[in-house]
TrEMBL record:
Residues 1-130 form the Photolyase/cryptochrome alpha/beta domain. Pfam families: DNA_photolyase (PF00875), FAD_binding_7 (PF03441). It comes from the Bacteria. The keyword Lyase does not apply. Its cofactor is FAD; (6R)-5,10-methylene-5,6,7,8-tetrahydrofolate. Gene3D superfamilies: 1.25.40.80, DNA Cyclobutane Dipyrimidine Photolyase, subunit A, domain 3, HUPs. InterPro entries: Crypto/Photolyase_FAD-like_sf (IPR036134), Crypto/Photolyase_N_sf (IPR036155), Cryptochr/Photolyase_FAD-bd (IPR005101), Cryptochrome/DNA_photolyase_1 (IPR002081), DNA_photolyase_1_CS_C (IPR018394), DNA_photolyase_N (IPR006050), Rossmann-like_a/b/a_fold (IPR014729). The keyword Flavoprotein applies. Residues 158-186 are annotated as: Disordered. This is Deoxyribodipyrimidine photo-lyase type I. Keywords: Chromophore, FAD, Flavoprotein. Belongs to the DNA photolyase family.
Amino acid sequence: RPVIVWFRDDLRLTDHPALHAAAQSGAPVLCVYVRDDDSDGVRPLGAAARWWLAQSLRALEAELRTLSATLILRRGPAAAVLAELAQHSDAAAVHWNEIEIAPHRAVADSLADALTVAGIAYHRHRGDTLVQPNAIRSKDGRGMRVFTPFWRRVLSLGDPPEPLPRPTTLRAAPAQPSDQLSDWQLEPTTPDWAGGLRATWMPGEAAAQRLLADFLARQPGYAEGRDYPDRHVTSRLSPHLRFGEISPRQVWYAARFAAAERPAIAPDIDKFLSELGWREFCRHLLAEHPDLAASNLQPAFDAFPWRSDDAALIAWQRGLTGYPIVDAGMRELWHSGVMHNRVRMVVGSFLVKHLLVDWRLGEQWFWDTLVDADPGSNPGNWQWVAGCGADAAPYFRVFNPVLQGEKFDVDGRYVRRWVPELAGLPNNLLHQPWTATPLELAAAGVELGGNYPRPIVDHKAGRQRALSAYAELRQR
Ligand code: FAD
């Protein structure tokens, strides 16, 4: 009798506990992915993530073919679909890796119930995070809400379990009907807006491994350079981690090994792993607060006087705010499905502070446009930026988009790439074109209010309005 492996956000073969156990059992293996937009509370993927998923499933199919296995695609509520497949194929057992997110757990619980009723065994494995969410508690028994002590506790636990090897063989199971990936319409047709994504990314496990190896080979420089959007020093692993094409413990072990081989890069590796720690932290927060994308972690913010301003929101989404670093970031996002972390913080701060627009609208836009849109990291970071989250940046600290641009895009390469209409301006004017004289603008071919907008809000006035709104909140 075959055993089923249910692939979820773990689209890889190496360090895949469920696949490993199924292969070890010696039984024929059926590999299945279920597209589930129907189960309660499971957040449907945004458009950019759907594009990624399609490529990633193709890559997984190709990897499985090297083991003479196939990937069965099914659509519907995962628990019902899998229970039916298990019965139909007379499976002896179903294996899967847990996703420690409440609605995903609920789906897995109903599958477990249905399999129990049908007398089919099931095995729930772990490997999505370095440390199991809920395993780290503060003294009062609740989840930890401050990153530094959280990460110290994670480090004090020592190394996570070692990654599992990729199976060398799989016994093929009799074929089962499968959907066609193209019928799922995960990718855009007309208009085909995915050209920038295709040019930027190579989804799949093999590409993830290459990125990790390249990243580790080119250190040092991460700790110092990670804040500069044009330097390309970060790993770019986030969408691969999001879809589980690589596991956090593979990253952990490879990074530790690299640091042991080259002690000079140890500080960079420590910093890099602590960033991976933020992913863990957000996952732990999400496990504790399943409605992280909807509710302020600090309830005091429920009364925050957000403005409703569709025109400002649209200008922000399109990269037409008149602030070059903000516009560069938003256009990078639209074009390539990603944005550098420093710039995410700047554009996020601009939306919630200068424009006083509710962080949830920014979170939703990111959810739809980021290839790495993650149910923990996206809302967790938005709450951090908005000042209403766990361990958040204080609301009254308002990023100055001009100074941020001048500091982190010193020679203007990032802005010139994404806002080419400003490329002719000299560096001292690039981040604040409205201070240029008419002659300087004309020489650079810039027409403010013409081919590039004037600022939609004055920095000082926007900052003051944000601080007044915050003061009002505190008086309530
Ligand atoms: P590296 O610097 O190489 O870091 C390694 C890994 O650590 C990343 O791949 C990522 O998995 C993790 N990581 C790094 N920084 C963070 C962080 N601040 N929070 C959580 N994990 C982190 N990251 C996502 O993966 N998905 C999101 O939806 C997401 N939304 C964000 C929204 C906002 C408003 C902000 C400010 C940040 C968001 N981030 C998100 C975090 C961060 O911007 C990205 O993880 C990072 O830019 C990815 O680039 P990298 O892989 O080169 O990172």
